[in-house]
Each structure stands twice: as structure tokens, then as C-alpha cells.
Amino acid sequence: MNYVSTRDNKNIVSASYTIAHGISKEGGLFVPSDIPKLSNKDFEKLKLLSYSERAKYILKLFLTDFTDEELEYCVNGAYIGTFDNDLPAPISKLGENVNILELWHGPTAAFKDLALQILPYLLTTSVKKSSSTNKSVILVATSGDTGKAALEGFRDVENTEIIVFYPENGVSQMQKLQMASQKGNNVNVCAIKGNFDDAQSAVKKIFTDNEFKALLAENGMEFSSANSINWGRLSPQIVYYVSAYIDLLNDNADLSNGFNVCVPTGNFGNILAAYYAKCMGVPIDKLICASNKNKVLTDFIKTGTYNRNRDFYLTTSPSMDILISSNLERLLYELSDGDDEYIASIQKSLNETGVYTVNDKIMNKLSNIFYGGYCDDEATAKTINKTFNEYGYLIDTHTAVAVNVYEQYKNETGDNRPVVIASTASPYKFVASVLSALGETEVDGVFENAQKLSDITSTAIPTPISNLKDATVRFSDVYSKDDLYSAVKEKLSIM
Length: 495
Ligand SMILES: *Cc1c(COP(=O)(O)O)cnc(C)c1O
Description:
CATH architecture of the domain at 88-108 and 232-463: 3-Layer(aba) Sandwich
Mean pLDDT: 94
Low-confidence stretches: none
Helix content: 40-55%
Strand content: 15-25%
Radius of gyration: 22 Å
Bound molecules: pyridoxal-5'-phosphate
Strand order of the largest sheet: 4-5-15-10-11-14
CATH topology of the domain at 88-108 and 232-463: Rossmann fold
CATH class of the domain at 88-108 and 232-463: Alpha Beta
Distance between the termini: 41 Å
């Protein structure tokens, strides 16, 4: 199988090329030239396999230039011994038809681990295949979860060096501690004075600076990307939707009318993976796209107009505070039946004016497959409270947005078929918001609050969070946003 760019489908490359390069040279995203199909025979086989074996089975269909040995090395390294009980994506039930797919049992307690545990293996294998001996330098700008998950994934991975930039005052206390105490000999963490957009713009500028690239090459290095537009992050996410279906089958769930999937969405990566699983033959009916008050996607799904010219809100579900959902471009490419010129034109419009409207053909498919809804912080808090009181089940703010929007969907449509709701973070990452949703007052200190949450809900603090209490802070440098060039040079010891 090959990959093509969404903005020029005569640009055809291999799987390993897309993973090593991240983005196409004219700015498009790489998508598979055709989507592999799973038959009932495949599903029967998958029923007998562990998560890492299922991952190998499915990734093999997409990463066709990887050998069996290479794939085995990648999935075993990523999924064996790294998640609680070697179960990266277990399901909990809220009543008969509501299945919560818990994606936060990894080393950083957010769903980003499912992709960022395997990406370093896929990336280094891909780079080796291109016969490059250069060291890969990963630059990451983060608003919280991605930075820590990338650090944990790349730590001490041979021939890589990772530098993460986060806004000094833009992440939760727990997230800051997680990053500042990161272990490993190839990791660097820099706080910057500025917001997430400043970090993101500065990183992009360095990334595309030809002089800087040449300097790196002289020193035997090259830049690589770990952000969510890399196919090496998206393809591992397809696995857990297929795996959830197999688990439901093994559990004898009644799936005669298929099932729905509901995902709390920001950059559109996670829900897009569910769409690919549907295209592969997993009997998913509706894809329910849940947003917080930054509801650019809800409006798009309802009207066909994407408009990022609007107020930006900071919410209690910060990982979804985003107005440009980059991975949407891949969906629109599929819905337009691969019309690269059309996609290039609407993306140009987005860059220049912040707006585009899709044509009727795309709009019809979009509204058949997707439902978009949103809820604000107050409704998010109420949902956390209600879910805990009714089911004794504790959810974080992002998952609560999804549970709330799923209920809106069910009330509006009466569609009662089984649903899989993606649960994207442990409640202990957002402990202040969760405590307050339960009607409790905060005490002093982030670990004291975590203990309080644990005591009143009889739930356990995840080990990666409780371990932070005794962790040593290794990184306390704060840089001005104009000094990132020298910061990168200093960290890489190049002049
Ligand atoms: C990143 C993130 C999201 C949004 O996922 P996308 O793939 O960007 O749509 C939702 N919840 C949490 C906790 C996250 O970290």
C-alpha cells in the first residue's frame, strides 16, 4: 500500500516515508491510497489475540513496507510492560449499552500514550529504512498532554533527541511537574514566556528554516515531528477501535444493528481513527463528535461551514481548546473521493480567510456519518457529578464532554444502540476541576487534592501520578519566546 498527499495525489510515497517526514512538501497530509478491509474471518482471528498481537495484525495492513520482525519489535516495545496489566484499552460499562473505552492506563495517564508509545519505534525503524544514519531531533510544542507522552515515548530511544516547549503559565500544575521531572538522557524540557501559540509558531519556524536544517545536517542530525498529523500517530489509534469491537464481540454484546462511537475531539485525530475503523468494516454507525465551548466542529458538522474566526475560550477540558482541527483535512479528502485540487483550494481559503464551506456532496456524507454536539464547563461538571452519583464511576473533564454530548444525541434521536465512548484522560490529571464538580472544595497542594479525590471516591491515584510526589525536578529553564533558536542549539550542543 502507498500513501498520497491530500493536496497532490500524484505525490505517492511509502508508509515509512510518511512516518519519517510527517507532512508532505506542499503542506498536505498523507493518507492511505486505499483503505484495507477486514472480513469476518479476520474478526474471528482477532478474537483470540492480545492487544499487542491485534496491533501487529492491523498495522501490518497499513505499514506494508515494514517486515514482520520490524512490526513485532515496534508493537512489543510499545504495548508490553508499559500499560496497567498489559491492557492498553479496557472497557468499563455504564449500564447495558454504554461502554467506556479507557485509554488512560499508560505511562502518562492520557490517551496520547497509545500512539506516542509506539511512534518512536515506528519512526526510528522508518528512518533506518531510508538508510539515513542521522540522529532524529524531535521538537514538540505542547499545551500539556502531548509533551509528556512524547517525552515518555522517546526517552532513551537510540539515535533520537527530544526537546519539548510548553507555555510557562499555560499547563496544569500536574502537567508541569510531569514534564519538569522527566527522566532520560536524550530529553530536554523548556518553559517559555508566552502562550501555546507562541511556542507552536516558534517551533514551526525552526522546523522550516533551511539554514537551521543545514546546520543540523552538518552535525549528523535531522528534524522529525511527533505531532498528531504524523500517520505514525494516527494508525495506532485505529487499533483500539477495532480492538473495542472485538472485545464487545467476545462479551456477546448484541451488535446486530452496529454500534455508535462518541469521541471528545480537538485536533480531530482520535475520531478520524474511528472513521478509518468504520471504513475497514467495523460496524460503526454514527460517529458522535463532542466539543467543549470551542465548538468550531459542532458548527461545521451542522452547517458545512468551517469558521475559525471566533472567540477562543479557556475551558476545564484544555486539551480540546483548539480552533484549527488539522486532521479534518484527511476526512474531507476521503469524503470528496480523493479530490486533491478541491482540498488544496479549501485549505488555501482556510489559511487566507479562516473560513471555508464544503460542497453538497461532502455535506450529505458528513451529516449521514457524523453528529456534532458540544457542552460548556457547567454542563461538564454536572455530568461528572451525575455519572459518579449514578454509577459510582469517576470521569475526567474531557470524557465528561463526550458523555454529555452522547446523552444529547440519544435524547434527540432515540438511537439506543450500543455506544463506545472514548475516555481520554485520568480524572487525576485534572484534579481541581473534578473535585469541584463533585461539590468538594480544594485543599492546599496538588497531591493533597489527589489524595482527597481518592478518599472520597474510593478510586486509586494512577501510579505515574502518585510517583511524581517524590520526583526530582530536572528542568527549570525558562526562555523568552525569541530565544528558542539559541535554546535548541544549546540543548543539541551545536554552534
Ligand atoms: C489530545 C486530547 C483530546 C483531543 O484529541 P484529538 O485527537 O486532538 O481530537 C481529548 N482529550 C484529551 C485528554 C487529550 O489529551
